[in-house]
Amino acid sequence: MISERISRRGFVLGLGGAALAVATGCARENGATTETMGADALAAVWSGKTLKLICSEAPGGSLDNTCRMLGRHLGKHLPGNPTVVVENMAGGESRIATNHVYGAKGDGLTIGMTDINIPFYTLLGEGPELGVRWDPDKIPWLGSTSKAPQVLAVHKRTGIQKGDLAAVAAKNLRLPYGAVGDGPHTGHVLLNELLKLNLRPIFGYGGSSARMLGLDRGEVDGTVSTWDSLLRQKGSELADGTLIPMVQIGGPIDHATMQGVPTVADLTKDSAEADKNLLKVVADRYEWARPLMAPADVSPPVLEALRKALADTLVDPALLEEAKKIGIDIEPSTGTQVQERIAEYLKTPKDTVDRLQKLIKADGA
Amino acid sequence: MLETFGTFFASLGSVLSWPTFGFLLIGMALGFLVGILPGLGGSTALALMLPFTFAMDPVTAFAFLLGMSAVTATTGDLTSILFGVPGEASSAATVLDGYPMKKRGEAGRAIGIALGSSLLGALIGSFFLALAVQAVRPLVLQFGPAEFFMVAVLALCFVATLSGKAVRKGLVMASFGVLLSMIGQDPGTGRLRLTFDLPYLMDGISIVPVVVGLFAVPSLLEMMAARTSAVPTVSNDLNGWQQGLKDTLRHKLLIIRCSAIGIFLGMLPGVGGSSSQFIAYAHAKQTSRHPEEFGRGSVEGLAAAGSVNNAKEGGDLVPTLAFGVPGSGQMAILLSAFLITGLTPGPAMLTDHIDVTFSMVWTMVVANIITVILCLLMLRWIVAITRVKVPRLIPFLLLFIALGAYTASNSWYDLVLMLVIGGVAMIATAWGWPLPPLLLGLVLGKMLEGNFFLAYQLSDQTYDWFGRPLVLVMIVLLALAILAPVVKKRLFNRARGTITEHETARRQVRYQRVWRGRALLSGAALLIALWAVWHLQFELDLSLRTKQFPLLAAALMAVFAAWQLAIDLRGRMPVNTMRIDAVLAEAEDLADRPPPTSPSGGAPGGASRAAVEPLAGHAPTATLPVPSGDDDPKATETAPSQESSGPGLRQLVTPAAVVPFLLFFAALYAFGFEYGAPLFTFAYLRIVAKERWWACLLGAVVTWAFLYLMFTKLVPLPLLESQVFDW
Question: What pLDDT score does B505 carry?
Answer without folding.
Answer: 54
